[in-house]
## 1
Amino acid sequence: MSYAGRILHVDLSTGKTETEPLKEEMAKNFIGGIGLGMRLFLDNSKAGTDPFSPSNPIIFVTGPLSGTMAASAGNSYAVVSKSPQTGHIAESKSHGFFGAELKRAGYDAVILKGKSEKLVYLWIDDDSIQLIDAQHLKGKSPHEVETAIREELGDFYIRVSAIGEAGENLVRTASIINDEFRAIGRTGMGAVMGSKNLKAVAVRGTHDVNVADLEGFVEFVKMIHERMKGPATRKYRTLGTPENVLVLNAIKALPTRNFTQATFDGAEKVSGEYLNERYIKKIVGCATCGMRCDHIGMVSEGPYKGTTARVEFECLWALGPNCGVDRLDAVIEAIYQCDYYGMDGISTGVIVSFAMDCYEHGILSKKDTDGLDLRFGNAEAMVEMIKRIGSRKGWLGDVLAEGSMRAAEKIGKGAVKYANHIKGLELPGYDLRTLQTAALGFAVSFRGACHLRSGAYSPDVKGKVNRFKIEKGRGKIVMKGEDTYNIIDSLILCKFSRGVYYEELEDMAKYYTLATGIKITPTELSQAGERINNLAKVLNIREGKGTREYDQLPPKIMNVPVPDEGFAKGAHVTQKEFDVGLDDYYEVRGWTKDGIPTVEKLKELGLQDLVPIVKKKLAKTQTPKRKGKGGE
Amino acid sequence: MTTIHERKFVSGDPAKCVGCCVCEYICSTEKEKAFNPTKSRIRAVRLNPFVNIAIACRLCEDAPCVAACPRDALDQSEETGLVIVDEEKCNGCGWCIEACDYGAIQLHPETKVVFVCDLCDGEPKCVEWCPEEALDFTTKDILAQKARIAVVKKLFQEALKATI
């Protein structure tokens, strides 16, 4: 069976370690990945803990398929903690090679607590666990750390997941990066590692990973490999996600200059087509995967000559159109710098664009920027600003390192109008004014603004709904997307491969059973997805968040209509329609109008033990008061 | 008896290999009934995203690993060119590992004797599974031939266009 059956606890304050068995019931109920990670977080943390407190656990967790040859899922891991950006529950996934190694070392999860006195890295060598001095790695990039650790431990096949300078500096958007360019990108997990003085986790795993039905499993994987050669993965194998640039631009859904316009005049020059023709030198893959999607770009001339980075749509968008930048050489350099300092490229881009918007509106002066001409489109200024954020250099670098929500409050003068985040997590690259199912989906996402919690942009982009309005029925679309994505993120399948599961939950349930030997039906799996969403919601409520007033949209989406000429002109989300959407979503979820799971719902999902957490809150909000406060 | 010209082996093409290690996983599955790259007869190496290749036994003429074994635990089949390990005689001393320029013969993590590619009875699983078709089950002569054809195609692109 493909679970390792073991959970490792490491106390970074004392160096003490212990293992506990993973119970089968826990495994079946929460699957693995983010589901299991969030359940373990709940069981190993106290309400109201500061994200940077030593007692805030950070959990590295594998999935039931990690370490097997499951295409796209054999290589994965997730990290769960409380987010320093949002104060809500945080989760992020990454692929590459690290996750498989952690499973082979024999762990379903590693729960890290406490704080080391000095900078250290955790060395997991199968059963041997050590904390090793990392002061000589201070300030080094994740990739430099990976190279150094392999060298000093003397094994090329050691896999490393590390933070850069940004994580050490508690930059709230700091990421954790493994295998050179795969990131636990969102929700600031790198900063939590930094707060514990933990520079890296290095792993060598030599144990077998077994599945319950080897023959059936291998046959299933072979089928997935064949499907991966087909149309479901075409986009990822050819132009890659940057294909989105021209697609979104054509339907006026490409956020430009900090969500001011919905089309970009320089779109052609930052398109997937342009990128692949001039910059992409090789497309590579993660361990065990039959498709290949990592588009490796290289700049061959100009000021950034020689820079290499993995380029995906989101970071390209955040550091390109969103900052008004139409130069791919600078975009590749900016992505490289984000990876070098170890920062979420999406959030970093949206934070820089926020500062640019403030600068253009006179809220930030040249004095505030230490002489930097931070207007939209100034590529050099953008790259410099990224470095200042990563190193917290200068007044503005230090302020922006706090993320757009906190920075807007510190800057004042109405800067909040230009901050594009939900719950403190910056928006990804979809214009929510012209993709309104996505607007609802992003608003209710438990980890903050996210396209990958529900994929709610998909029905909008594919024209399955009227994307310029929110109406009854959208709640169900969002909920279904969320529940499926919760399963994908608990099995930790790569979302780029989601199209190859033709029968969706049926295929996923089969995959799970072949690997683990634990029987599960598609209905049970779907219910696990619902259970995981409710668990996340209850965790947020435990932290004093999670209610309706936190499921909101940024001011620009509500109050600034699309200015672009043509069919989308004037589009924005109205409070009235948004409220209809929230009501509809809460209703299909079986939650109150305030967005709180009911006692009955929790019992139905087998989450009886969480009832005390919501009970107090439910009593307080018995009579529904004014619906959300909207986008002020 | 076959000559080195006729011996087919598993050859990796660095231009096609993307470093996904599917070959390692299917090899350990086929040979050991478990997922474990450290038990794979073929190993992938990624130096950086641009430089990837998988390496298995190249069936050398007068294989240096065989010559290096002080215990006569290794033998090379005259018929197929395969290196055969006598697990009773091998004590894991590693002279053969030092002798191999390609790191193709390795010490098994559990049995503590060396192990090497056996071409899966003439139908290598890694070649069948490689998603990029970066692995070839071929002879050195055919490899040379393919390289010549590729370079001539490149050199005479214009002339080719004119004739099609």
## 2
Amino acid sequence: MTFKRPTPAGWAVLAIGALCAVGFVDAAIAQTAAPAADAAAAAPAAAAAVPNKGDTAWMLVSSALVLMMSIPGLALFYGGLVRTKNMASVLTQVFAIVSMVGVVWTLYGYSLAFSDGGSMTPWIGGLTKAFMHGIDSNSTAATFSNGVVIPELSYFVFQMTFAMITPALIVGAFAERIKFSAVMLFILLWVTFIYFPIAHWVWYVAAPDDVAAAAKALAAAADGAAKTAAQAKLDEVTGAVGWLAGAGALDFAGGTVVHINAGIAGLVGALIIGKRTGYGKDLMAPHSLTMTMIGASLLWVGWFGFNAGSNLEANGVTALAFVNTMVATAGAALSWLLSEWIVKGKPSLLGICSGAVAGLVAVTPASGFAGPIGALVLGLVVSPVCLFFVSTVKNALGYDDALDVFGVHCIGGIIGALGTGILVNPALGGVGITDYTNITGNNAGTYDFVAQMISQGKAVGATLLWSGIGSAILYKLVDIIVGLRPTVEEEREGLDISDHGERAYNM
Amino acid sequence: MKIVMAIIKPFKLEEVRDALTAIGVHGLTVTEVKGYGRQKGHTEIYRGAEYAVSFLPKIKIEVAIASDQVDKTIDAITSAAKTGQIGDGKIFVINLDHAVRIRTGEADAAAL
């Protein structure tokens, strides 16, 4: 065995690469010439704010919990559902996606999703924070409470774990029949052109404290000139937000950005790549429901970081999101079990695990907005609908969404997104429209059902269209460049051997 | 010499082994197999996908014996493996031409 040290020439190449990178960043900064858009810098009150130790600790723990959702949680949940010959392939795909997105997020993903994009800000961030430029241990990021900040590095890594799991969800749709090289290329393109923009649309608010202050001023202003001035100020600060955030869409932890987004991309992939060889003829039963149960349970635990962590602080709303995540999931697990028992005659382990995931998906956008009873109802409702989609609709339409990414994540996500618009209503135990979400249309302290549902519908529709159409283009592109499908012989042999040269099980 | 090959229900293996030991048959080979017969299969449902599982798990045992032991062996297996339900299995008897014990080189009757 030999290990080669980098040669002097190798070091020179590395150095040139680093220099190019620095030049690239400087050029990007010069081009955007953005006003200091960092939330902390823009808000005078927040400039002096110091992160709370408890908040910081909670955000770092939450980030680790969300990583655990992907590996091993999602990997085992999916892995158990495929045949033994493709187990290592699914595990490798999830692990590799997590690792690749971690790199991409650090290089430019965080910047595209969470920095100011100048005139493009409603649509996409800029490159001012590429290569983590300007982010150190003293940088801060705003939270939902005015004047409360957390270290930007904790926000960076928390959001990174979301960017890791979302594309990993997609692989379930075309599991057992895609080349590993195609997965990697597609996911690289997908996070760049689909995920980062949508995360920016929904979650980027440059200076939430300013928005809140302007909205309060508007509400307090008397009629006439004062009101006009206050409105103008509000319009100005709301210019620096993603367009769906600006449209008043509520998505607490990523129902649109993560689940609808991944779900529709999965469906499009299943349609374009086509059915597995032998689909509808061969036995394709899950090879280990034990693994699937372990995975689903890890997802449930990790989801507390995902949902309760999305509050960005450790406070009462965090506890609300935590409790909602618990009760909605319990309700959904139970209602899937019972629905299947009634319809198919037997209560199944796969059913209760699927129900738990559907409940987690549905409660994601609602977790910080609904009350616990609202979340429970949401959980009870989502499972029968998802069950209908994964059994009746899928069979009727004949697409091979292998692990039901569309039926569970997209459909569950849509129910959650629309349900959030209903359950946020204080009359139903929801928290109401709080000031940081008040941007256009819906004012703080008010709740207008129609306006809210239009906002939610916009977010759902925009995500379906952008991700659906964008993914279709990317699949076609990847098909041209490396080819999507392995040969039929390779697929029959199993992707473990044909793609990775190893088996998950040697027994 | 004969080989008696029996396909039995998996949970009957220990009883069959005990019965064979009792009549002086001290060696047998066991294989986990799947098969299809009058018992048919069952249906498994995974979310929306229903699979008719035709091949059911069974145990195949093989014993090599002297020809005069065949009836006794068949009786022992039959009585131990019988439940009276469809799916109890079958017994096949096959001629055995030659046998060798690898360790000693003993042949035929001495090798059994």
